[in-house]
Input
Amino acid sequence: MNADGGLKMNFTTDVSHTFIDLLQKELVWDDEVDSWMFMRSPIPVFSIVIIYLIFILKFGPKIMENRNPINLKYPMLLYNIIQVAFNAYMVSLFFTTPGAINHHFNYLCHPLPRSSNKNLLLELNKASWFFFVSKLMDLTDTVFFVLRKKQSQVTFLHIYHHCNMVISCWAYLKLIKGEQLLLCGLINATVHVIMYSYYFLSALGPQIQKFLWWKKYLTRIQIVQFLIIIAYQTCLYLFDCNFPKLFVMYCIANGILFLYLFIMFYQKTYTKNEKKERID
Output
């Protein structure tokens, strides 16, 4: 028993040391990036997420319980057009940052050391920071739901998606500072340009909403987005690309979970309704 216990302890210790060594090799520190707003410490980011959850799940519904829904048409119009412009700006950064396209495709699998290409990587890290900020901005979606008494839209998918993206994007920029999510961010920002354009048109009122027949295709676009991201990250892993393996595995697992949740949402929202319409 003592021998077995010793073997188990040694195995556990070896695995722990291997994991820690692998993690230390994958972490990247940069004094300039780590000095940016929100990047010094996890406390501000996690505080925002906690306050967000308290408001949308407890405090917000409570204060709106005996109140009429707030008319937020014009704040929503302004918010949606800002989101369209901001996401379009992030998409443009990929094409306007000197050397970004050539660098990404020439060193897609085996990126250059950070020390040999620091200036370009700092510019790409700035784009990642903007992307992270856009995920903080996305939290406003749920606040609008609560203030408009649309609590049924505050689903597990919606909450998990927003919280996960905030925390994952922060952790990526704080700890990884890599390039493996550059293409994923480009795809996601493009999808958000389309999505917030739809939301802007929808917020104009019933006279426009009746022409927005393509709502369900937004979810299809998001599903395709996750399929592409999962395939891309899987290739990085299978081809043994020089990227942090632990984070790539996390991205694959997270993408699969998002894909499952969005497919379930699509089936519940659209497929069942279409079947019901055929029966009626």
Notes: The chain has a mean pLDDT of 87.
